[in-house]
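Workshop exercise sheet. Pairs work together: one partner reads the sequence aloud, the other fills in the structure field after running the prediction. Swap roles for the next sheet.
Pair: D.N. / O.F.
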Amino acid sequence: MRWNRVVLMMVVALAPWSVRAQEYKMEVLNEGPPAGLSEAVKGALNGQGYRVVDGEGNTYAEFWLRKAVPALGKPSGAQGAVQFPILAEGELLGALRFPGEGYDYRDQVIAKGVYTIRYGLQPVNGDHLGVSTYRDYALLLPAAKDTTLADLPQKPLEDRSAEAAGTSHPAVLMLLAPPGSSAQAGPSMIHDEANETWGAVIPLSLEVKDASGPVTLPVQLILIGTAAV
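Structure field:
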């Protein structure tokens, strides 16, 4: 019995280290958007996606980006606490599939399944002080509850996203501007050791009025890791 207790204590002590030491990488997924999305949403997504796998080759998440995200203008940097002021709150960015249990940035459990990804802004109120420097987030919505391309107003956006987590709070993934060198390197996973997060650096293709062609906006979607508070 004493030996069993010692072994149990060692396992518990090592578990956090095992989580921190896990490595992730991103692969191109030569597969179209998954079943479960509406035809309108599916038709707006690229036919090729990305897969995030751990060091043992297990798939954590798969996602597909929108072919062309309507933008208010060309990227020109942050405005105050908003990193991507050219994006409209509630607009569709892509879709994501968890082949198993997933988690959001608040460590809420997200069930296995298919979700849309929409752009959102953290509310300016006392409930969110200290959570992050910037207000930009990606919200996950159950695919069955999000079937159109139209931008969603804040209230229905947050309400439907909360259904993805099965709680009263939206299911959110932090959205950041990637470090300069990572932004130029193309799709990849980067590790923030200080915050113990892994982010997918991906190119959003923007549709900008009067632009001669698509405009690329590199973003970092935090898929693994949680808020410090």
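Discussion prompt: Residues 1-20 have pLDDT under 50 and may be disordered. What would you look at next?
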